[in-house]
Design brief:
It is a single chain. By secondary structure, the chain is an all-alpha fold. It has a single domain (2-134), classed as Up-down Bundle (Methane Monooxygenase Hydroxylase, Chain G, domain 1). It has four helices and no strands. Helix 1 runs parallel beside helix 4. It is elongated and about 70 Å long.
Length: 142
């Protein structure tokens, strides 16, 4: 189980590295309003995020099954059971994983703000009365 947890951390690092490239590219596609590229990128991002969620859940269950509790505290407890060299490698990987998660969350937040801004602009452009006219039967405004 310990080797599986260590492998999951390495796999997570690879997925976060992938997201580090995809999320800024998504931002650029959002700026260009390139719906085709946005769809392509989302099709790559979604399974990556799903794998990250799956491994995090598995890690949490494994830590709980080992009687270590949950969260970062549990992972730190687990690290104390490793021999010195593998522990250093896993600690480094765990630290890098936390940093990568923060970076991707920040980039995702930036993309979310951009989407919200797009939505607000569209709402302002359409306005309430224009929107009603767009969706009314021809020749009938509400």
């Amino acid at each position: 189980m310990l080797s599986l947890l260590a492998q999951d951390v390495q796999d997570d690092l690879l997925d976060y590295q992938r997201l580090d490239g995809l999320l800024p590219e998504l931002h650029q596609a959002l700026l260009r309003r390139d719906n085709g590229r946005i769809g392509e990128l989302n099709a790559q991002i979604e399974p990556c995020c799903e794998q990250l969620r799956m491994r995090a859940q598995r890690r949490s269950k494994a830590l709980a099954a080992l009687g270590l509790g949950g969260g970062a505290v549990a992972m730190n407890r687990l690290l104390q059971h490793y021999p010195a060299e593998p522990r250093r490698q896993l600690e480094t990987g765990w630290q890098r994983l936390g940093e990568a998660a923060v970076r991707c969350a920040d980039c995702n937040e930036r993309n979310g703000r951009l989407l919200a801004m797009h939505h607000e602009i569209i709402e302002q452009l359409l306005g309430d009365s224009t929107r009603r006219q767009l969706y009314a039967p021809h020749g009938h405004a509400y």
